[in-house]
């Protein structure tokens, strides 16, 4: 498995560097060629229970990717608990923070399928790393544009 990852990484880097260079630079620079001021910064929130729930999830994903089969079930269990606690706290399953956790829970379920779990959780690890250490959530960015969320105030926590 590690050998196939080693053979995949160079081809991905080649694609990023050769095929997409103008996209990368256009995105990093503003329309006038200057910085847009959106550099990702390291952000942690140790006083937030939500952050600790995401950190535990991240640690379990790392354990799962390293080879601990029970960790896959732990990720799913923590995701269920996270969604339920947030739904109870918000008193609604349609609250934006609950929507993100429900989608995340759905994305953890391929961990039940042994043939795809490693690769799926590798991608999940990348997204969860963004949430835990940089306060960026791809799921929230996608859900923000969902038709049922138009015109609503969207709070992540």
Q: Nutshell version of this structure?
A:
With 157 residues, the protein is mainly α.
How does this structure look, described?
By secondary structure, this protein is mainly α. The chain folds into 2 domains: 1-39, no CATH class; 40-149. Helices cover 65% and strands 0% of the residues. The protein contains 7 helices and no strands. It has helices at 2-18, 21-28, 49-66, 69-90, 96-108, 117-134, 138-143.
Order of helices and strands: HHHHHHH
Task: Compute the number of helices.
Answer: 7
Taken together, the total number of domains comes to 2
User: How many runs of DSSP E, i.e. beta strands?
Assistant: 0
**Percent helix:** 55-70%
Largest sheet: none
Strand percent estimate:
under 5%
Residue ranges: pLDDT <50 for 5 or more in a row? 15-35
Give the termini distance in whole angstroms: 37 Å
Coarse morphology = globular
Q: Output the structural class.
A: mainly alpha
What is the residue-averaged pLDDT? Answer: 81
Rg, nearest Å: 18 Å
Give the helix/strand layout.
Blueprint: H1 2-18, H2 21-28, H3 49-66, H4 69-90, H5 96-108, H6 117-134, H7 138-143
Helix pairs in contact: 3-4, 3-6, 4-5
List keywords for this structure.
157 residues, mainly alpha, 2 domains, 7 helices, 65% helix
